[in-house]
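queue> pop job 88
queue> type: inverse folding (structure -> sequence)
queue> payload:
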């Protein structure tokens, strides 16, 4: 099996589409008024499923946490420490909830956390090197 993408079950489709498209730069693949919306970020499929539509499709009801939740995080990478600060500032100015302001961690990564309009955690981090080089070991 290969990872094809991942999805979020969302309550307010329009608000979530606008956040991921306009604030974080995800590319939308169809109209905003559909019940399941496909977005793409750097070649990874990102799905937004309407909660009620998903419940109807699976004939089940689910529980949803309101506000900030710690079920998972989405990690986004930028090439420089300065870009972490800039991306954080832009996201918060455009409606993201601040969870952790940018800081340099003891392991050498500059990181911050925000939350989307429905409380899902998003990390923006950098090792101060281009994405293609971030996992290369030195020596």
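queue> result:
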């Amino acid at each position: 099996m290969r990872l094809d993408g991942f999805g979020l079950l969302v309550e307010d489709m329009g608000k979530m589409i606008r956040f991921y498209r306009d604030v974080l730069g995800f590319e939308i693949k169809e109209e905003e008024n559909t019940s399941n919306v496909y977005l793409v970020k750097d070649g990874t499929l990102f799905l937004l499923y309407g909660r009620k539509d998903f419940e109807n499709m699976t004939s089940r009801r689910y529980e949803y946490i309101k506000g900030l939740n710690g079920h998972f995080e989405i990690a986004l990478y930028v090439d420089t420490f300065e870009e972490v600060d800039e991306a954080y500032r832009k996201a918060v100015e455009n409606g993201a909830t601040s969870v952790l302001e940018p800081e340099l961690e003891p392991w050498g990564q500059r990181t911050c956390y925000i939350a989307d309009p429905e409380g899902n955690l998003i990390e923006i981090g950098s090792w101060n090197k281009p994405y293609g080089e971030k996992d290369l070991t030195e020596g």
